[in-house]
Every structure is written in C-alpha cells, then in structure tokens.
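## tool: complex_structure
## caller: assistant
## args:
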Amino acid sequence: MTEPRRRHVAPYLFLAPYLVFLLMFGVVPAVYAVGISFETPDAAFAGLENWAAVLTDARLLPSARNVVTYLGMWLPTMLLFVTGLSLLAHHHGGRISAASRFAWYLPGAVTGAAAALLWLFMLSPGISPFSPLLRLAGVSSGTDLLGGQGLPVVLTVMATMVTAGGWIVVVYAALNTVPGEILEAARVDGANGWQVTMRIKAPHIRPQLALMLISSFAYGTQIFVEPQVLRSAFTSQVSETWSLNQLAYFFATQRGNFGMAAALSLMLLGVGLLVAVFVIARTDLYATGSRKG
Amino acid sequence: MTSDSVPEPRADMTAGTGPPLRRRASAVIGATVMLVSAAAFVIPLLWLVLAPTHTRERLTAGASLTFGSVADLGRAWSNLMTFGDGLVLDWLANSIGYSVAAVILALLMAVPAGYALAMYDFPGRRAVLNATLVTMIIPQAALILPLYLEMVGLQLIDTVWSVVLPSAFFPFGVYLTYLYYNDNLPRSLIEAARMDGASEWRAFVSLGLPLGRPALGLTGFFCFVQAWNQYFLPFVMLADDSKYNLQLGLQTLISSTAAVNPSYGATILPIHQPEAALAGLVTVGPILVIFLVAQRYLRAGQLGGAVKG
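## result:
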C-alpha cells in the first residue's frame, strides 16, 4: 500500500473500536426503541397506539408535574449558588476561598443511592447533625418531609450538594481567564469590587452558566435513582411513578408493555436531543475554528 | 489539607479597592458566607465517616459529629457482614471489576479515536464529532430501556457484559482526548515523523500516546466515576443480587432491613443506622479518595477547559 493511501485508511482504523460502540450503545438502542414503540406486546404493528396510550395515561400528568416542579426549584437554586459562590470565592481569593471550593466540590463523590441514603439520615431529626434546624422547620420525622411537596425540596437539596461544587470549579476556571488588562483598566477607571464583579466577571461566565443550566435540565428530566431509593425506605410517601423515567420503568415491568415504555423513553430522548442540538448550536463545542499546528 | 500544594491563581487585583473599613467588613462577610456554606457541604460527609464508629443508641441520641470507638466500628462491620453472608464484599468486588473493566475498554477506544479526529481530515469526521456530542449530552438514562431490549436480543441479560459494555461507551472521553490532542499535539510533529519514515501506527504509539497522557488520566477519572456510580443500568440488567454493584446493593440493603426506616420491623438482622452508614461509606469511599487525589488537576482548570471547549 502506498503512503498517502495508508494515511486515508488510518483514521478509520483508529476510530473503528469506538464506532462499533457508538453504533451498539448509542444508535442501535435508539433505532430499536423507535421500532418497538410502534409494536403491540405481540410484535404486531400498532401504529400510534402506544404513543396515544402514554399521552392519555392518567399517571403521565402527575409524573410530569413532579419533574417540572423539581426542575423549577433545582435550576434557580443552582444558578444562585454557583454564580454567587464562584464570584464570591474569586473576589476574595486566598486560603479561605481555596478551602471552600474544595469543600463545595467534595460532596460530588456521594451520588445516587449513597446520596439518597445519606440524605435520609440528614433529614431524620434525632440522628441528623442538622437536628436543631429541622426542629426549627417543624420536621419531626422523615415521613413529614417526603409527603406532599417535600420530595422536590429534598431532591433539590441533594442534587445541589452533589453537582454545585463541580460547576463552581468550571466557572472559577473561566473567571481566571478574564484578561488582566481589562481588570486593570477597570481599576484605573475607578470601578470598585462590586462593579467589576457585576459588569465584567458576571457577563464573562455566561457561557458556562448556560451550559450548566442546559445539562442540568437534561439530567433533571431523567431523574430516577433518587426517588426510587427514597421510595424503598418510604414506600407509602413516594409513588412508584413519581418521575417520568420511573413511569417508563413501570410500563415496562408492571404492565409488561415495552411499546409504551419505549414511546415514553423516546419522548424523553426527544427532549434531550432538542437540548443537545440547542447546546451545539449555541456554543462552540467543536473548537474546529481554533485548530492549531 | 492538600489544597495548599498548588500555587493559588493570582489574587483578584480589584479586591482591595474602597475605604478600609468597608473593605474589611466586606472581607469578613465574604469569608463568613464561604465558610458557613463550606461547612454545610462537608458536615454530611463528616457524619458519614464518623457514624459507623457509634452504637445505634449513641447515634440516635445525636452523638453524630464525634468519633465513637474502634470497637463499635468493628462491630458495625461484623453486623454488616451478616447481610447475605458478606454480600457487601461481593458488591465491592463487582463495583471494582465493572469500573476497572469499563475504564480499560473506554481508554482503548477513546484515545485512538480522539487522536484520529484531531490529527486527520477525512470524510465523515464531522458526522462522528456530531454523533459524539449528541450522545455525550443525552443522559444515558434515556437509552436504558431500549438498551435492555437490545441486551435481551443479544442474550446478555444478567451477565457482567450487560453492565460493563454500556459503561465503557464513554463519548465524553473521546471528546476530551480529541480536544486535548487538538490543542497540544501539533500536526507538524506527526508530519515530521512521517518524513522520517514512521508509519501512521508508529506515529501514534511514539508521539500520540506519550503526549496524550494527561488526557488519558482525565478520561480515566471521569469514566471511573461514571461507571462506579451506575445505578439504573445494573438495576435494569441484573437479576441476581450477587452480581449487583454497591450502588444497587445499597438500595437492596435499605429496602430489606430496618436500617433507615425503623418502622420496617420485618428483619432479624442486626443492620441498623451505623451499619447502613458503613455500607454507604464503603460505596463512596473509593470515589472520595479519587476526588482527593484528582482535585489538584481539577483546580488547574483542565476540567474548565474541557467543558468550555
């Protein structure tokens, strides 16, 4: 084989193992799901039956409402915490800032079932180190907290603890890229710390905050583990179809209807895809323009 | 704490403007807000580390943020071992096995893929990048039920592979190595190696691999954390509880003992709050250690660069 010829083949060989996985675990399941969503449980063509059944299912609206309520609490909380703490840590600098950023980031290690377990304890008066605060809030047992509108609040606290620190690392790194000349010019012009923070730094981190909101939204819509684990301790307080993904799982396992499960998964996937396309269109994730060398 | 080992980025030069008194007040308020929030974030972790050293009685009496005794920690451990005859150890071994296997497979495919995307122009390059970004942003949970059906078709349900293979598919790692090579490995270097008669493979092995080591480390870190924390995937794929990983096992432990909800009286096992906390600690311990080791790399802003693009 001649040299240039080899150079044309090489990239495909380098890519081959990854492409196999991309196909097997990215593309094929999606295509498979589309097929099954149009089939009856006996593998006959069902048309839009499954899709209609999902959309008219009485459980869909409550599940969707739960997820939307949760997102409505969590996303603003993230925006407030991450923006506020990053700007504060960057403004003050020094050891306290470094130690705090480390402390904010550590709970990211506790996710999923472990996070749910830990937070069940944190929210049990008597055992929790936050007991005095819980009593102030009028919480006397875990049952109190998880009934009614308590669950989205608990999930918001958990998810913020787990993910805020990582995003603070990202936003802080972005703050370090504000050009020194601009800060210097602002100082010469007599801007105070607050003005520099609000007029120069806050606008500078907008892309990172947008990315945070969008990916948090995508992950939040898929919530499954946390309510599922909380449910295993408090069965009567947390519905088995609390979130949309739990509902899809319910269709598949309790009703044995994979067509409906696939249809609902695809609806959620559609939301995720929309968000993904939006991210790609809005941010320069390719970095092809800045190619060097 | 190790956080002092890395030089702090230059302190903000605008921090010291304004009248001295106001400046000091603002510094005190800022430090207070940071420390209080930092404490709120760390207290739950501290509790998790300390709780297994207490007896059940002391723990429920609120003796939470102190060290109990080594003897009580030992007793919590032997109590925990009564659950399914040491099932927790199986879960620990499974978690390690699944995660290490996923990381190895992910690196084997991500590194050459990222290298190819950065070093070559070829038809289909943009399509592969597009597909990578889309699958990277879509949460895996969206594809889990279809994946289940695919695994049924492949007859891999309830096998190790039904968990390891999907965990090894890690498009974020491909994107990360692609960005890294794009920024740090000049194409002219590869061209020079070709001039010297090196084959494409030789150029990859002797230039791409050694120069890409930081990207390898970062990809391995993220992939390990992702694989270790899998829950929905093994939940759907595995039926046999001796094949569970720790995350899934933890839920089994919670739902089949009185550890968390004392009104579940239907168990004779000595699994209560300290034992459940210990199981939680075993689950997050390795990730916590990895986080401690990785923090200086993250602080160096590599993550920031990766996400920012």
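## assistant note: The radius of gyration of chain A is 24 Å. The longest helix of chain A spans residues 3-37. Handing back to user.
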